[in-house]
Prior knowledge:
By secondary structure, this protein is an alpha+beta fold. The chain has 2 domains: about 1-30; about 50-165, Pleckstrin-homology domain (PH domain)/Phosphotyrosine-binding domain (PTB) (PH-domain like, Roll). About 20% of the residues lie in helices and about 30% in strands. The strands form 2 sheets. It has a 7-stranded antiparallel sheet with strand order 4-3-2-1-9-8-5, covered by helices on one side.
Amino acid sequence: xxxxxxxxxxxxxxxxxxxxxxxxxxxxxxxxxxxxxxxxxxxxxxxxxxxxxxxxxxxxxxxxxxxxxxxxxxxxxxxxxxxxxxxxxxxxxxxxxxxxxxxxxxxxxxxxxxxxxxxxxxxxxxxxxxxxxxxxxxxxxxxxxxxxxxxxxxxxxxxxxxxxxxxxxxxxxxxxxxxxxxxx
Length: 184
């Protein structure tokens, strides 16, 4: 019977932490209700220019790698396939809505060390900066194979409109930056 009190206390603490986490997520969803849903992918997409399997990490406010966007399943980490098309980037996610980034909305592409919920080796994530209904956001994708990361980066960088490129992109947690169009 001496073990009953510590077990009950531990279970109570675990329940409180889970409850506070759920409350925080619910409040984040309520604060972000004004963010409109990303556009749907076109019914007919061109053949993929590049295809990579991996993990959709998260979408955050651009430049703030901890400010996770929770609405519209954008804060849900999931296994995914990223395909680059002439029309934009399609991220097909398991267990969450697919994400389509229109070519015109794409601002830059870079490699980074991490975002909310995922930190990896230097330049381990491909980060797409794009406009979501007037506000810039960052979307992270981690490829399964390291060599696929470079191909995905180059294919996505080729889509970035020349007039949206920024010479000084806001670096993420690792303070790293890979220029978008200067990649050869």
